[in-house]
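User: structure tokens for Threonine dehydratase, please.
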Amino acid sequence: MPDAGRAPASNEPDVGDVVVTVADVLAAQARLRRYLPPTPLHHAERFGVMLKLENLQRTGSYKVRGALNALLAARERGDRRPVIAASAGNHAQGLAWAAYRLGVQAITVMPHGAPQTKIAGVAHWGATVRQHGDSYDEAFAFAKELAEQNGYRFLSAFDDPDVIAGQGTVGIEIAPYSPDVVIVPIGGGGLASGVALALKSQGVRVVGAQVEGVDSMIRAMKGDTAPKDPVASLADGVRVKVPGFITRRLCTQLLDDVVTVREAELRETLVRLALEEHLIAEGAGALALAAGRRVAGKRKCAVVSGGNIDATVLAQLLSDVRPRPPRKPRRRNAEGEPSLPSPRAPARAAARLPIKTGTRRIAVAATETEVHEESIW
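Assistant: Done. Predicted tokens:
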């Protein structure tokens, strides 16, 4: 596995020799298991993809993993300073919940225009909420300034080794289901970096997903590090002008690919998730699944990273977006592993299953593995 700390680029002086390894992810898993039960995997048959449901996580997003691991690791080091963070919402909620559980003072800086459901979630857990600026990057600069003035610990939403390691526990929970490719959304790169650290040694391909016009990471990986304002997007959780420096190195070294999707595809995927799979996701949460049709794989897994969407936004999407009807699946016998994700799926005995189609009956032979509908992707 490549050394994440070697030869930092000249424009990355702040991260220097910072190294994050699989050992850090395993240590994070040991810390978090007491507080956070594993989230489920759901087989979305109509999409032909397994979904890692981080929208069912505490505070409705995977972000609580990194925040809690960072606070626990700081406590082990004897660091009891108040913690401040900038966030579009999910990192702030995760930090607020973790600080409440551990009795740590937390301050969150959120941009104006952040979803009200996320602001309310932060306040619910007792963290101080400050709103500043119109983007994550403006909130970030203000939070850094407050940290320096008051001696707080600044906790990045993604460019922190403890945060990256905590997000990597998502990959550890996916590993027993043996996917051949895992798709993750990318904003600043914390989730993608952590999941890639956890899974690359297992031979699993890891692919990142971004939205057209909100693609700072893929541009940085290609050498274009000039700050560029992201366009307005439903995926507010990944609207980052400058990705992390630690995460940029890790993503460049470990990701197999990064794909971009159109805004219209993202909106349609979110609505289909609600109507067909009965799952509520926010814009960034549906991003990996929207990218799934561009990624080849027999056992694909997409991370549904969060479900904190404003009710008014969801209602408007359900009113405006009319998804195209999916193709009718063809019946076929599975030749490989069962499509239903299970680390220990028992074999089924051969049987004759009568299936009624229209006005005639068709007998379909079930082999030792399950009969399932062919993926529409």
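User: Anything notable?

Assistant: The CA atoms of residues 84 and 177 lie 36 Å apart.
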